[in-house]
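Sequence in, structure out. Go.
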Amino acid sequence: MLALGFSTIGCPDYDVDQVVALARDNGLKGVEIRHLRGTVDLPSLEEFSDARIGETRRKFEDAGLWVVCIGTSVRMNSLDPEVRRKQLEAARVNLDIAVRMGAPYLRVFGGPLPPNQDRERTLDAIAQGLGEVAELTAAAGVESLLEVHDDFSTSPAVLDLYARGCSDKLAVLWDTLHSWRFGETADYTWSQLGPRIRHVHLKDSRQATPQGFDFALIGEGTVPVMSFVDLLKRVDWDGYLHFEWEKGWHPEIAGPEIAIPHFARYMAGKV
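Output:
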């Protein structure tokens, strides 16, 4: 059954108690932890320390909430061995948080292709590196999800990584805005990536093209958001559809006290 939630990128300065209250008060069941108390460096927070992480998990569980995903910045688009080592270590420490919070997914990126690197070598390195991350997390019972984003915003770009030997243990987080702004309909993306999709992001925009996008409250932009919702219902998809409001990167947009309740109201009765 399709369930609703949000990423904490939409409430980047909130603490755990505020995140829990925001979800509970708006009838949302899933949370993706990306920002917390003004940082994306989750391992640095005492809430995820050995002494506190059990308490943090219980706060979500006691409220009937599920931490669906730990959102990382991990990407393997560098050819520098030391950079790649640090990215793998970032995956390890965030994996520990995912395991101890009971989150089934860890989000990673393909990233933009650095213009100063050979394209083919870079794509091979991304496929190999993300495959290594996916194998690492799978051994601990957590799936790594490649977000449809950056230079991997289209189905062919994502599938090319598997053609280059990336592990099938790497699954997909479908950011619907990015596939749509590059010309893919909901049905097309699903036909190409459906068996690999584990988690879905929904957001709206007034102007969304391959060159860029802005942000609109759900239902107030030009993105056919209900085409994605209707598809997921039609295929009887059993997963979480999360609102991703990028307040953490764009402080000028509306606050979480506006955007996230608006999402909940708009989606009421639609799933």
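Check: The longest strand covers residues 66-75. The two ends are 9 Å apart (CA to CA).
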